[in-house]
């Protein structure tokens, strides 16, 4: 819910007329006092479902915002947790909110990058994402999912909650339809675009795109949210696993390439271009910090506060 400490109507209007990235920069200081931050019960349900699938060494929160997913991953990961987002304002708010877990806890890194071109290669055992998929058009999902796939180590998991569609009899159905319609008109008439649609992330297409990106997909019902009258879960956790043998597949593909010519640069398990941000296997926090901001807009490690 919005509270008196949250953004004013005027601030929300200015944000909505900005680009997605700049809109979040503006919203960042008050984001945690809006309903857009993922509520704790979704984070807890995700952590509870992931815990038996761990332990994990390194975790990645894609579109981390102010760090909801990073905080969820901290107790599940032994070595490090990275939050990635393209809004510098959100990353600054996240670094303030999460702080440093201190000695003994996993290291925390913040990286500024576009999730449609994630700059990591086989650096993580688990990736999560909360509340951000409405910012991606269906045509952008292949780039998003293959970037997460590349960021994961063989056998790594990509997990996120997904809700069942609202029935046409629900007022929510019409409210979300109306919101998406308004945003489509706004984006036809106004630049820069602010991409945020509620009804573009349907389970069937999402599972298909995950499989096309190389994942094996499982759905875990999140029972704490109850079931619909037809017995299906209101919310599920999508758990997409990268094949454990991906490295071997890459080695085989490379050896085939030596004999048969080039392989596609976005083939599953293939390595990212040499300009990628660390996040490659065995990258440590200090290596990330030492590398400093790069000339590229994406993949920029956010310098730590002194
Ligand atoms: C609604 S917020 C969710 C934040 C957080 N995950 C949470 O659940 O509270 C959406 C976040 O996605 C980020 N985002 C949107 N599009 C992005 C993109 N293409 N690349 C990286 N971050 C993106 C925004 O900057 C924003 O921080």
Described by the principal axes of the CA atoms, the overall outline is globular
Major sheet characteristics: 8 strands, mixed
Rg is: 19 Å
- The portion of residues assigned to helices is 25-40%
What's the name of the CATH homologous superfamily? Vaccinia Virus protein VP39
Q: What name is given to the CATH topology?
A: Rossmann fold
- Distinct ligand kinds: S-adenosylmethionine
Strand order of the largest sheet: 6-7-5-4-1-2-3-8
CATH class: Alpha Beta
Oligomer: single chain
Query: What's the order of the H and E elements?
Result: HHHEHEHEEHEHHEEHHE
Can you tell me the residue ranges where pLDDT is under 50 for at least 5 consecutive residues? 259-297
Strand elements, count: 8
Summed up, the domain count is: 1
Q: Care to describe what's here?
A:
Strands 6-7-5-4-1-2-3-8 form an 8-stranded mixed β-sheet, sandwiched between helices. The protein is 35% helix and 18% strand. Mean pLDDT is 86; it is low at 259-297. The chain has one domain: 3-Layer(aba) Sandwich (Rossmann fold), CATH 3.40.50. It is of the alpha/beta class. The structure holds S-adenosylmethionine (SAM). S-adenosylmethionine (SAM) binds at residues 20, 24, 36-38, 63-65, 68-69, 85-87, 90, 114-116, 130-132, 135.
